[in-house]
């Protein structure tokens, strides 16, 4: 009975256009409409969800094409195929099977089918209908947000705007200009200031950031995204902020001073969002690059970003005291620490008009995890205080599979509430409809 | 099959008398048998579960009648009705629908039905059978605990005792006399000491508290309740305690000293409970009044008390080292941090004869949350180490709906265990019976 | 439908040999093949899962035979029988019912059946087929690991090796030689150094530990186990380590220095595991002996070890930076803080080839808990990064019941994934087969 209702709910929304207000698809794929290189590059080498689990199972990153040396894509694919059993039950496994199905690949991945599947995919990728722009249309993407450097001129976004029916939005992501521990922080800030000859003061620095935000807004951006290990916010007096700015710029700041600076800058970003209207999204609680030797050899985003506990209630209090009730301010909070769902996120979003609960993120973007998220947040905050689904992905081909999985998971959750007599079927239908379109449009001001 | 067994279990207990050993119904409602004012005052304005979610969705507290100015109750009701979709899937939504059903209101709340439902409810509330005492009898309330100030003379409780078949118990709640950060702390302590001319020393202060506890006990109280942000307990030497007492009274204590004082007073409250037999309940882990500007404008209890992580294992250790094995001592622990269920609460209650696991509280008083609570605690501590359901509510009309929901949720959990072959049907029946009556009577010494 | 698939999966693995790579069965039971004393000693007095819940319910440890004085086993059994209802829904209840069933005891435990069940069990225990070695064979145990003191000569393991078809492996457990707060730490270290006249320096101490590990390896051990309250690891310079070693040995170290020493020794144990190949298992996050008065009167392991939150991500980082990618290194992480499943354990094990997610441990070794564990880890790390089931028990007779319960729980989880279309039936079968044999053999190098 539950499954029947779930199926009906899912079918209402299965074909709804895709709204993807936060993700990591490189804009040049769409700007240049470049064909995807080969099955390995597309599905393995650049997908750290996939490479990390192969790595955990003893496959070297060099053999997967992440190293300096050349690697044969067919060999990389064979490594995936022969280790495919590792992905049973994982979200990566689910997505990839959906994508292969979409590519017309029916064979189960294993050592024996590696070559035939490789060839079948490679053949498809050479066809015009498998180039990014065609896929964008076929996937029914209505809105797709990229994630961009504040100094990006966004010319590619302009070029793309005319070429596609759906919207492609830039997202302002200033982490490397805000975190004194980021590589080349001082150089980046100097470039930022140099852009329009802003003075090398904290006031100049804030003005330069505000200026770049305006640039993004002029080019259609609706949100600014912030990745932080700790969701700490601090309101510092301007003299102290100026002093800290000079210290971090000169590399003289202590760890604690750098922490204060980061906390103050998150606070300042909220202030700017209140002023210029960009939706503020915070992805918190991940310790990046846990394995230093892996970072050195293979770079960042290679599968060893590991979550830590977060404290939104106390960490965000200064921000929310100052801006939590500001009209029009939208703050979407993402975390991987599930203990905050019922303890912090639902209560915060159930009071502050500005706060929205971010959809299950990263490791939690999966059917059971989505079920736990709904169970832990709905009884306190209902459905309207969530962000709607966000795929957060660089893996372009996985976008439909990800949205599809979320739609199925939400339909299953709603169906259970109907069967348990907690909502009526008609309510479930309205909510299902809302979640895939109107809700994310409201939250992201689309 | 599970649903059938759950239904049978539920029907055994559906009509059992209500034991409500912890709640916030104002005693004067029962003492004066005042008719409820109007639908808005009854269901909206004073229910921070309801107002907070409307607030989060952009409805102002002024428009809901929380501000200084007058508000038209019908307009307030219209705001609820037109935003009723926000409550789908929430516990507040469930309770309110049950209450409306009880009031004979069949129409679904929405903008179109706002006026007719308002009128229908208002008409009912004017009838004698909808006054508090009649409802008390009709609800089948056997025991109802209020929460009271230590200096309350409890005269209203005496008056009520003769007027009702069930018992109405006062509860000793001394937070404002124990927490140096509470508003008017020093004045309150002076009033407490002045009551019977106790000396302004730590010893006098303890004697005054013990004296008021005796007053409560003489008037039938069975428990003392403590709301703390951090469940910290500390056993200080008497000289240090005296010194701290003088500091906090004079407003000279540092944050850390105030913290120590609070921790020592929670310890002292346990000592007194061991001596005088009052059941000690601790509600821990909520940061009160997160939004200072909301507190200033609308007062406390306006929906922005936000949970934080708790550490019962280490925080309560001094208390449990001293009193955990004391005969007759009962300590009921409530938290909103679900991560403590299996990690701390079930193991503590599975060893210390004094410790009971408080029923899911506040944001967690809801069907899925109750299911998670049972799942996380039962395998370690069984059913006998829980407190039994506690409604913790000020919303008098919601009492039956809340107990009903808990009974349904527990029946569903037990039914699943039966179907999975983990308990026999007869055991499930005995447990279901125990949970709604004998268990809370044992835990709360009723 | 789910239940049918679960049953089929379970039946595939129900009779598979038992691999128990971590547990606490005393080797002398098998070395001497001593008959079990009586039903009370076997099922009650020495099982702290059982005694703790009776204790929580007001039964004294003296009456259960834990005190100094003599106790009549029949009286102890009567206490269990008359309180048997407390165990409904607990894992202890499940295991004991399975064991009684295996003993042919059909009557439900209660005051009325206490004597007849006692007699029935006692009669069985006197039979040769209920002695440890016969049971070992009948249970189908293929591998059983004990937990042993580093100075144990392991002669009993040698004796047992020839007497049983299955393997009995010693496990190196050095906690009391590594933790300056352990009772008699300095004396233990002196004995360790004295064993082969190692110098009383940090270098000598490390050499002595490495020497005892070699002794264990020569006698067939495959793993070293570490129980810590906090999973902290620190890489100290050798001069600092030497200095700390001298301080802790002389009892002059501060709490913080002892903490550093423990953290450095956990780091050193990983280094040795990398060198000598012993699988490193870490059981973290339990505050031992919460009730000091109980410890003094009844000793350790009496039911008041209470979990605390753990931080694997930051605590283990130094260890993983140094050894996480070392070939052949296996590190199995156990915790009772469920919040780390999706937040830390699955992401760590999904990247580091050395890290395996330990099966749900202690309070979490139960059907619902296993379900939550699978739900929280599988979507990120699949099935291959878990340790396989570990019974961790001293209760010899409960071994089959524990493995059986885990097999049922895993079958139920897999069946749900099949029904939800997330894995195919054939994959579920392969995974079910892998979990009970090949997987733990790979993880524990058997």
Write the layout of secondary structure elements.
The structure is a homotrimer of 446-residue chains.
Chain A: H1 2-13, E1 18-20, H2 27-32, H3 39-45, H4 48-56, H5 73-82, H6 91-102, H7 114-125, H8 132-138, E2 141-145, H9 155-163, E3 167-169, E4 171-172, H10 175-178, H11 185-195, H12 202-218, E5 223-228, H13 238-249, H14 255-276, E6 279-284, E7 286-287, H15 292-298, E8 306-307, H16 312-315, H17 317-323, E9 331-334, H18 340-349, E10 355-357, H19 367-381, H20 399-419, H21 425-436, H22 438-443
Parallel strand pairs in A: 1-2, 2-3, 4-5, 5-6, 6-9, 9-10
Antiparallel strand pairs in A: 7-8
What do you see in this structure?
The structure is a homotrimer of 446-residue chains. Chain A has 2 domains: 344 residues, Metal-dependent hydrolases (TIM Barrel), CATH 3.20.20.140; 96 residues, uronate isomerase, domain 2, chain A. Chain A is built from 22 helices and 10 strands. The first copy, chain A, has 446 residues and is of the alpha/beta class. The model of chain A has no long low-confidence stretch (mean pLDDT 97). In chain A, strand 9, helix 18 and strand 10 form a beta-alpha-beta unit. The first copy, chain A, has a 5-stranded parallel sheet with strand order 4-5-6-9-10. The longest helix of chain A is centred in the middle third of the chain and has 22 residues. Chains in contact: A-B, A-C, B-C. At the B-C interface, helix 17, helix 18, helix 19 and helix 21 of B face helix 4, helix 6, helix 15, strand 8 and helix 19 of C.
């Amino acid at each position: 009975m539950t499954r029947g209702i779930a199926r009906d709910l899912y079918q209402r929304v299965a074909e709804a256009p895709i709204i993807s207000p936060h993700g990591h698809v490189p804009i040049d794929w769409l700007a240049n409409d470049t064909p995807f290189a080969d099955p390995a590059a597309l599905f393995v080498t650049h997908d750290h969800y996939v490479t990390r689990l192969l790595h955990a199972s003893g496959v070297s990153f060099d053999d997967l094409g992440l190293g300096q040396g050349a690697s044969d894509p067919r060999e990389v694919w064979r490594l995936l195929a022969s280790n495919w059993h590792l992905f049973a039950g994982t979200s990566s496994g689910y997505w990839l099977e959906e994508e292969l199905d979409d590519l017309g690949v029916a064979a189960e991945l294993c050592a024996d089918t590696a070559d035939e599947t490789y060839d079948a995919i490679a053949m498809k990728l050479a066809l015009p209908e498998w180039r990014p722009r065609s896929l964008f249309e076929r996937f029914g993407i209505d809105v797709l947000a990229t994630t961009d450097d504040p100094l990006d001129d966004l010319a590619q976004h302009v070029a793309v705007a005319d070429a596609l029916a759906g919207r492609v939005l830039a997202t302002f992501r200033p982490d490397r200009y805000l975190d004194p521990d980021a590589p080349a922080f001082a150089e980046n800030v100097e470039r930022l200031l140099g852009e329009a000859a802003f003075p090398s003061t904290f006031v100049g620095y804030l003005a330069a950031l505000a200026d770049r935000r305006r640039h993004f807004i002029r080019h259609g951006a609706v949100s600014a995204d912030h990745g932080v290990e700790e969701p700490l916010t601090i309101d510092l007096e301007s003299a102290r902020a100026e002093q800290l700015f000079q210290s971090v710029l000169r590399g003289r700041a202590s760890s604690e001073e750098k922490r204060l600076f980061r906390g103050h800058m998150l606070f300042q970003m909220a202030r700017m969002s209140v002023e210029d209207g960009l939706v503020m999204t915070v992805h918190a609680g991940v310790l990046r690059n846990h394995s230093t030797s892996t970072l050195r050899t293979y770079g960042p985003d290679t599968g060893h970003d590991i979550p830590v506990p977060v404290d939104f209630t106390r960490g965000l209090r200064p921000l929310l005291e100052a801006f939590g009730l500001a009209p029009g301010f939208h703050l979407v909070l993402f975390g991987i620490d599930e203990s905050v769902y019922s303890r912090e996120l639902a209560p915060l979003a159930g009071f502050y008009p500005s706060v929205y609960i971010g959809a299950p993120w990263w490791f939690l973007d999966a059917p059971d995890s989505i079920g736990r998220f709904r169970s832990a947040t709905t009884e306190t905050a209902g459905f309207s205080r969530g962000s709607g689904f966000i795929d957060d992905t660089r893996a372009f081909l996985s976008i439909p599979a990800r949205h599809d999985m979320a739609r199925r998971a939400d339909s299953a959750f709603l169906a259970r509430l109907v069967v348990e007599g907690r909502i009526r079927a008609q309510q479930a239908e309205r909510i299902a409809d809302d979640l895939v379109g109107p809700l994310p449009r409201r939250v992201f001001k689309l």
